[in-house]
Amino acid sequence: MTNFQHFLTIGQLSKLSGIHTKALRYYEQIGILKPSQVNPDNGYRYYSHSHIPYVSLIKMCADYGLPLKDFTNYMLADDQIDMVKIIQEAQAKILATEKQVRKDKDYLHKLQQQLLLSQQIDHRQQFHLDETNECYALFPFKGQMLSSDYYNQVRHCLLELDDVQLDYDNRIGCYYAYQEENFKQYMALKVKECLDRTDLPFICLNQQHIHAEHIHQDDIADKLQTLQAEKEIIDFLILETFENPYHLSQPHLELRYLIND
């Protein structure tokens, strides 16, 4: 007769591995956890101490998105498990998660910087951006900002950026260039890098003394005309802003232009 005292009950396995008994029962139900022994008298399942690292790996992989059904691919004959493959899969999932976490942290940092910038602009009439280093891909566009045509064009531009393998950097707006006594308008999407690219026109803000202020979309035309006439400014960038509270249907706008020394 088998001496079950040398084995672990499901409760003991749960306590030693830190995995709930419901999860362990589910692992057995889908065929990726097999008990070492089953008591024929009462049907109780018993497990060996070797099951502890195995079920811990199952939970870890599940936590990082590896489908539990894939564990059947690592089960060999005679109750053997291909631990090398499991560890390789777990490492790959963790590396992918770490990469996504870094990306998410960078995104949150940039949103936080936009919130701070918006607050600074709100509290000062004359706000200057020093040593900016931003690059915007330009696309032909003629229309009102924040309109349905504007956002339709945004979607087309995002697809085009993807086609040319440029990473969108979560800021959009319009660029206005004063040429031959008229303003030429472009859709402007911030990208992470545009060095040595000739497939699209770009504007790069890598100069000092860029003035920034908030502006309402109804005031854009008059404001640009006034600044061009009075200060002879010929390049303007108007961006949607991220601020608190954030208005989903009518985001605020930020006007930028270069101050000539």
TrEMBL record:
SMART domains: HTH_MERR (SM00422). SUPFAM superfamilies: Putative DNA-binding domain. Keywords: DNA-binding, Repressor, Transcription, Transcription regulation. GO terms for molecular function: DNA binding; DNA-binding transcription factor activity. The keyword Transcription regulation applies. InterPro entries: DNA-bd_dom_put_sf (IPR009061), MerR-type_HTH_dom (IPR000551), MerR_fam (IPR047057). It comes from the Bacteria. PANTHER family: MERR-FAMILY TRANSCRIPTIONAL REGULATOR, REDOX-CYCLING DRUG-SENSING TRANSCRIPTIONAL ACTIVATOR SOXR. This is MerR family DNA-binding transcriptional regulator.
